[in-house]
Amino acid sequence: MSMRILRGRVLSFLSEPQGLDDAASYRYLEDGAISIVDGKITAVGDFDPAAVGDAAVIDHRPHLIMAGFIDTHLHYVQSQMIASYAGSLLEWLNSYTFVEEQKFSQQGHSSAVAGVFYDELIRHGTTTAVAYCSSAPQSVDAYFAEAEKRNMLMVGGKVMMDRNAPDALCDTAQSGYDDSKTLIERWHGRGRGLYAISPRFAITSTPAQLAAAQALVGEYPDCYVQTHLSENAAEITLSMELYPQAPDYTGIYEGYGLLGPKTLLGHCIHLNHRETGVLAETGSVAVFCPTSNLFLGSGLFDHERLSQHGVRIGVATDIGGGTSFSMLRTLDEGYKILQLRGQRLTPFNSFYMMTLGNARALSLEGTIGTVAPGCAADLVVLNSSATPAMALRMQTATQLVEELFLLQTLGDDRAIAEVYVAGAEAKSTLDGL
Question: Following DSSP, what letter does each residue of 56-82 receive, concatenated?
């Protein structure tokens, strides 16, 4: 049982920052040491040469070491359709998304895309993500097989959709249930894989299918649920036409018992007061997808309102409506959205959201998202001088908060110096690709 020690500046969050001066919300070590044994962190503290012993020391100074980034909502099957032009969500879905996702029933396509998708996650510092696969079961097999190969903690599931999409993409209420059940039995809890029951959204699921999803939740309460909610005005209108008995869009999922602490709801932009209260009461997670919301013109997420009402919040790239695999780029756009809302997103809050905040959204705090003993050694090493422009700005940055804002504003995959998954180097293996 050999020990490795990562040396560098170490930043880890302890709680959600309540302002720029909330130093109690994080721990920062100017010359820190992270001890790793068998893929887990065993100790964190100031570097002490006398305590190294036989451990192998990897010196990342002057770089910053943090918990690996976590992405709580994206579509790996949309990796080849990023930057597809369309005027709105429903046009985009019909023109590109449903066409692209049909390819995942073809032999070998899922595995080929999954390999590149995981490379991009690692390249951008993301060590855990929650993804929608396609309606084809083999897309789920490829997704989890690649995660297992790389020893990554990943959440995902087969999209359930039995109407308002091309026939080649649709399942049925029964086949969606059967396929999902088989995939849960095969992958949930295998290695580091976790399953998400995934009715795409109300428009593409009949009442019978949402009832089937409800049955799966009852049989597998430790699985996640993921779907979309209130992203676009036309989507809301059509959903209410399809479910006229529901009090509102949220009420559709509420009526089928799909809300709860392990439910991840993408977007949540246009929520009324009742809906906000239901999300808070059920502990469901509203997932903020900044680049996607801007790209599709969906609207501006109201972080302050949801937070004040006690709604749990995650943040995500939403590839391929989102336009970057980078959580740094995502939070840069998130900052701008909240500026337009008249709300303030501090750099500390941004990096909290990418790490511990999203771990909490997944109920995985204590497992990932923190640099602390007992947590997985899923880590990212950040170079704040990765580009000439960043290096020039760093010459005048004198505080940690300035460095974090620089990374968020100007950083991308070039700022990711290294990534560790369960203590093993991951990004360096991609060199030369």
Answer: EEEEEEEEEEEEPEEEEEEEGGGGGGT
